[in-house]
Predict the structure.
Amino acid sequence: MAAAPMTDRQTLLELVTALRARLEWCRDTGAEVDAMAVDGRSAAPAAAATDDDSVPLNAAPRKTPMDGSVAGAGRPTAAVPPVATSAGAPVETLDLLVSPAVRAASDLPQLRAAIGDCTRCKLAPHRTNLVFGVGNPAAELVFVGEAPGRDEDLRGEPFVGRAGQLLTEIITKGMKLRREDVYIANIIKCRPPQNRNPEPDEIASCEPFLVRQLALIRPKAIVALGTFAAQTLLKTRTPITRLRGAWTDYHGIPLMPTFHPAYLLRNPAEKRVVWEDIQQVMRALGLPR
Ligand code: URA
């Protein structure tokens, strides 16, 4: 059966996604931008030689093994706005679909206001509340999950359901922090129907908001919770079982991938390794154990 024709918006989203990937790759590798080479299929570079069983979503993963210390390494040095990545390119200038108000937001309330009553993707009609994020706007640590579930959609706050309770325990009982000391957000701000995985066009619409959130908070470390968050942030398809426990670089911010709390609810034996990952984060932030 013939595929349904793409709408202009889908085509534009694909082009922008490909262009972003190309520009990021050029920025990361120092290669010259070749506008003619950009198309939805050829823009992504081949998988990094050191990561040969991973298939990049749209750019090569960049790995920066950490020595356990992030002192002075976490915060991008450039002022906001615009926000410079570790490689010097302002992330926001790559987000052609992001409105000037989103790009110009210089704090989280301004960013939330700029997102408004969002209808940029097809999740909008399904949501009760847009789940922006919660916590300390100057947090040293940001947790990034996948997308709101039912409880989060109803409350308008991330990680408040069963998985959220487990995350809260990790923060409060494990790390001896308060939930309001850290910042918690998701890749996707609106609940996908039946909690299905977010789709590429939804990510393309929503990810720039998280990019801006992270740039405004400028945390010393990010914890990516689960497959979806880790793979989306790192632009890789490497399984979380291989990613977890190893420091990686996200635009100059050390990022620790670990299992999602919902996975831990189904596999409690894995709490042990998550605790090891969290202890690495605590060590890096100089938190007492
Ligand atoms: N799972 C997530 O990834 N995020 C939430 O906010 C809740 C559950």
Residues 100-285 form a domain with the Uracil-DNA Glycosylase, subunit E fold (CATH 3.40.470.10). Residues 8-29 form the longest helix (22 residues).
